[in-house]
Structures are given as C-alpha cells and as structure tokens.
Design a protein that fits this description.
Chain B: Belongs to the bacterial solute-binding protein ModA family. The complex is a heterodimer of chains A (264) and B (261). Chain A is mostly helical and 264 residues long. Chain A is built from 13 helices and no strands. Chain A starts with 7 loop residues before the first helix and ends with a helix. By secondary structure, chain B is α/β, with parallel strands linked by helices. Chain B is built from 10 helices and 10 strands. Chain B starts with a helix and ends in a 6-residue tail after the last helix. Classes of the chains: A mainly alpha (264), B alpha/beta (261). Chains A and B meet through helix 6 and helix 12 of A and helix 4, strand 7 and helix 7 of B.
Chain lengths: 264, 261
C-alpha cells in the first residue's frame, strides 16, 4: 500500500513549522566563525563542560526513568482518587520558570531548607553547588516530560493484553514487567529522549540551585550563557558543539536502542 | 517589580489629576524642564540602578504629566547586545566602561558618555554573619561557602582585580551569572559570603549585612550613561540625563549606596 500524499491544508502549516524551527539553527550555522573553530573548541573548560553536561543529563534521565515510569503507571492505571490533582502537581515543573524551580529546590534541599538543614545537621552533607545538585535540578525540570510521554503511551496501550495475562495467572508485577513494559517501551524510549534533551539544555534551575563552577557545576548551557557575556562568537561555537553532540547521540541511540518503535 | 507597578500607577494617577488641576504636579519637582515633555522615554539601565532610576523616572513623570518613562533593567552586557541588535531606546546607562564601549564603538551613542556615579564592592553576609566573616581573606577559607560573580560579568571582573590587588586567592563554590544572583544566595543563607556591590547590600535591607573591603577602593566601578543617536525622544532623553546628573539625582544615588564619581 502506498502512503497517501500530504493534503495541501497540512502541507503549508507544516512547511511553516519547519521554517520556524530550522531557520534559527541555520542562523547559528551561518554565523559560526569557522576559522576560529579550532581555537575556540580547544579552549580550556569546553571539554570539561561538555562531559559534565552529558554525564549529568544521562544521570538525570536514569533517575527519571526509575522514578517516572512507576509514577506514569499510577497516573494512567491506578484507580486512586485525586489522580487529576496529582497529575497537575507533578507537571508543575513544566510551567514553572526554571529559576523559580531552582529557588524552590533551595527551600527544600538547601542547607537552610526543610530537608537540607536536617541532612546537613545529621550527615554533614550539603547539596547545593555540587554535581549532585546539577543532576537534581535537571531531574526536577526534565522528569515531567518522561512522565507525560509514558502516561500517554500507557493510555494508548491495549489493556486487553494485561487482562489476558491476568486471566492466565500472572500476578500484577509480572504483568507489568512482561506485558505492560514491553508494550510501552517505545513510549518510554521517546520519553527518555525528551527528558535527556531537556536535561541537557537545562539552565535556570541549574545555575540557581547548583551555581556555576567550572568542572563541578558548569554545564554547557551555563558556559554558553557566560561566553555570551564576553564573546558572542565563542558562545555560538559552544552552542553548536552542544547541538552536534546531542543530535549525534540521538541518532546513534535511534539506531541502536530505540529500534523499530521510534523509527516507525 | 512592585515598585515599577507603583511607578506606573503613580504616573497614571498623577497624569489624571494634572489634567484637571493644572500645574501643581509640575511645580512639585525641582528638576522640571517646564513640564512640556511628551511621549514615551525608554531607558536601558544596568540592573543595579533599578531602584534609583525607577524613582527618578517617577519624578520626571510627575514634572511632565504627558511623559511616560519606561525602563529595561538588565545586565549591562545584555543591554549592550540588545542595543547593537537594534532595540529602540533613548538612554543607556552601563555599569562599566567595557559595555558602554560596545555601544559607542557601534556608533549608537549621541556624543560622549558621562561618568555619573560609581559603585564599590563589599562583602555581603547573611544577617548575623553566621560564619564570622571579617574581611576579604575569609573568602579564601576552604570551609566557607562563597559566591563571587563569574569573571565574564562586570562584578566578577572587578572582583578579580580586588583579589589580585589584595593578594588573596578566593575559593568560591560558585561563580554567579550576575550580582543579584550572588546576593539572592546570601539572602537565602545558602552561602556564607559573597562579593557584591555596596548598593546591593543597601537594597537587600535587613536580610544581608555588608562588610567594607578596604582593598576594593582601588577597583571602583564607574557607571556611564549616554543618550542614543537614534533616540525616538531626544528631548526627554536629555532631560533624564540632566536629572541624573543634577543635585537631586546624585542625592538619590548616594542614598542607594552609590558614591560620587
């Protein structure tokens, strides 16, 4: 069967959407000072910031999957009352300005915070201004993207497979593991990618809660912002590096890990 | 933000009364230009000027009921970028020379910029000074949580000069993107000390205490302002600059912790 041609009423806005999303990127490429590329790339701190960005975004995604998939299941499948309120609450970070999110994290996990002051008093551990704080800030901002994606996938999945598994004697945990999870795997993968991308670009909550220190908390978006204060050309190059690395990573993952689900 | 709302509100109310009541609003200001300015004056000013300039803008509006003064407060470098990218404005006030240079080099200034005030660095500590900070040397203590501005932004560049001059190696836990971000962390009690401007300590009120830094006297930060060549309202722009440079304007700046240039 041949795929249908795109109807004209869809084609025009779709083309506009592409232009709107791609042109700023083209601007970035056009303005890149290619001749200075080498020098700017090997500048001290660039590799460090890039590595920190990749590591912290990946950790934030891992935490989000471990905690967010079960949360998505609760939102999609459980019959608990107040789910609508719960959904609204856990998606608050989506609408919250990230800087406010960073201040909110201080109020809870800062050394004067509700949990943080207790932690500091009992263990001597303080979270702000550490790499852990970067991961926490990124997780706070990015996890809702995963939760929403996975919840959508769970709602779209055919519940009759789960019913069948139950009739055949599988307990609920086995059903989740052997039936539900494989069924929504593409949704989880897509959610994880969204989550990772959001974490990689995170700026506001990170610079507020984790601060900015090269090697410890200075991720690429922070390095880009500060470079912009002194040398806009360097900022463009740094943005480009972040962009290329993230696109390359996503393409690699798409082939290796996401498999047919995302490619379909 | 609330102050800006209040400024707008005050302008509206005063504008309304002045329409019916004649010239008493204009007479109440010492620095009027005859009260005949009209239109909208747009001022781009360094974030540290927020409180003083909002106040001065209100005074100009009181003296000129048909004039609306609007501000864009942000980091000087962000403002300089906006101006070179074509943002329309009448006046630019920069917290340092480098960012003013960006604007003058682009040929956007009308005449030479004027140094109108200065700011000096101070150590800000949370109320009660829990870590017992006494001077610049404490910012080199490993066990303290310390914030400074990133070297890329003006307050960070000034801080570097001060540390170098004093022979102190700072051990910051974070290099903040602007001075207010550093101050916020002091207000929240999340850092033991931060190097900020004297004006920020005044603006923060009781939540923050200031400790003078004698070593900072050699790194006083000059503030410059200019009217812009493409000013949509050059007359009002001139009046605002005159107000800032007047006795009245200088007093308002000093009350906010600035010092005479």
């Amino acid at each position: 069967m041949r795929r249908p041609r795109t109807p004209a009423p869809l084609l025009v806005p779709a083309t506009l959407a592409v232009a709107f999303l791609v042109l700023p990127l083209a601007g970035l490429l056009i303005r890149t000072p290619w001749s200075q590329l080498g020098a700017l790339l090997t500048a001290p701190g660039v590799g460090q910031a890039l590595r920190l960005s990749l590591v912290s975004a990946t950790l934030a995604t891992a935490v989000s999957v471990v905690l967010g998939v079960p949360l998505a299941w609760v939102l999609a499948r459980s019959r608990a009352r107040g789910r609508a309120v719960l959904r609204a609450l856990v998606t608050v970070p989506l609408v919250l300005p990230p800087v406010v999110g960073g201040v909110a994290l201080f109020l809870v996990l800062g050394r004067q915070g509700i949990v943080g002051s207790w932690l500091a008093a009992t263990t001597g551990i303080t979270i702000p201004f550490t790499t852990a704080a970067v991961v926490i800030a990124e997780t706070f901002v990015a996890m809702p993207f995963l939760v929403i994606s996975v919840e959508g996938a769970l709602r779209a999945a055919d519940a009759r497979f789960e019913d069948a598994a139950a009739t055949l004697g599988a307990d609920r945990w086995t059903t989740f593991r052997r039936v539900t999870l494989p069924l929504v795997a593409p949704g989880v993968a897509a959610g994880a990618v969204l989550c990772w991308a959001r974490a990689l670009g995170e700026f506001g909550a990170t610079i507020t809660f984790a601060g900015n220190f090269p090697g410890t908390t200075q991720t690429m978006p922070l390095a880009v912002y500060l470079a912009l204060q002194r040398d806009p050309q360097a900022a463009i190059v740094l943005s480009l590096v972040l962009l290329l690395v993230s696109v390359a990573t996503l393409l690699l993952l798409r082939d290796r890990w996401l498999g047919r689900g995302a490619a379909a | 933000m609330r102050e800006r709302m209040a400024a707008v509100l005050a302008a509206v109310v005063l504008g309304a009364t002045a329409c019916g009541g004649g010239d008493d609003a204009a007479a109440s200001s010492a620095s009027d230009d005859g009260g005949g300015l009209t239109g909208t004056l747009t001022v781009f000013a360094a974030a540290s000027l927020t409180d003083v300039f909002t106040d001065l803008g209100q005074r100009l509006e009181r003296a000129n009921p048909d004039l609306t003064v609007q501000f864009n407060f942000a980091g000087s470098s962000a403002l300089a970028t906006q101006l070179t990218q074509g943002a329309p404005a009448d006046v630019f006030a920069s917290a340092n020379g480098a960012q003013m240079d960006v604007v003058t080099d682009a040929g956007l200034a009308d005449g030479d910029p004027t140094v109108f005030t200065a700011n000096v660095l101070q150590i800000a500590v949370p109320a009660g000074n829990p870590a017992g900070v006494t001077g610049l040397a404490d910012l080199g203590r490993e066990e303290l949580t310390v914030a400074v501005c990133a070297p890329e932004v003006p307050c960070g560049a000034a801080a570097e000069d001060v540390f170098t001059a004093a022979g102190v190696t700072p051990r910051p836990d974070t290099q903040e993107e602007d001075v207010r971000a550093a101050l916020t962390k002091v207000e929240l009690g999340e850092v033991d000390a931060a190097l900020v401007y004297a004006t920020d300590v005044v603006a923060a009120g009781d939540a923050v205490e200031g400790i003078a830094v004698p070593e900072a006297e050699d790194a006083v930060n000059d503030y410059l302002l200019c009217t812009l060549a493409a000013a949509p309202d050059p007359e009002a722009a001139r009046a605002f600059v005159d107000l800032v440079l007047s006795e009245e304007g200088q007093q308002a700046l000093e009350a906010a912790g600035f010092r005479a240039p």
